[in-house]
User: Which sequence fits this backbone?
């Protein structure tokens, strides 16, 4: 499994490299999290980080490996009365492209956290996320 503290710190450092991202929020499923998400300012672009799920990829105990299914969201809070989701996707697309570029740079530089399988990198448009958010999810698998 990925060490959660190091994983969170990685995303916090990466977000600082992307001017459009206004904050990082590790996401859990609880009432307090819903309140934190709903209190974000309209126009903010937040990187939501979910804890990875780990699954064994080992054929035997001597070569134990796990595939960590990871998902992060680059989400913009918007007013659905004034903007449509397409325009939010357009405005947040630059941030998600920069995020993926940073991830690839970190992979190439030998980052100890970001050892992901490039073939698993997927980007999906997301709308109606926590009512009033739209943007992109980025999924990938890190091998540990």
Assistant:
């Amino acid at each position: 499994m990925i060490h959660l503290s190091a994983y969170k710190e990685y995303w916090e450092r990466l977000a600082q490299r992307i001017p459009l991202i206004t904050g990082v929020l590790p996401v859990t499923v609880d009432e307090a999290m819903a309140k934190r998400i709903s209190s974000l300012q309209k126009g903010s672009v937040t990187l939501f980080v979910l804890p990875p799920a780990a699954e064994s990829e080992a054929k035997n105990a001597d070569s134990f490996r796990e595939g960590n299914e990871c998902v992060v969201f680059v989400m913009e809070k918007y007013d659905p009365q004034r903007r449509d989701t397409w325009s939010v996707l357009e405005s947040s697309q630059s941030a998600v492209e920069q995020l993926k570029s940073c991830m690839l740079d970190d992979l190439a530089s030998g980052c100890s956290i970001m050892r992901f399988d490039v073939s698993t990198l997927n980007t999906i448009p997301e709308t109606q996320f926590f009512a009033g958010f739209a943007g992109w999810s980025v999924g990938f698998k890190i091998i540990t």
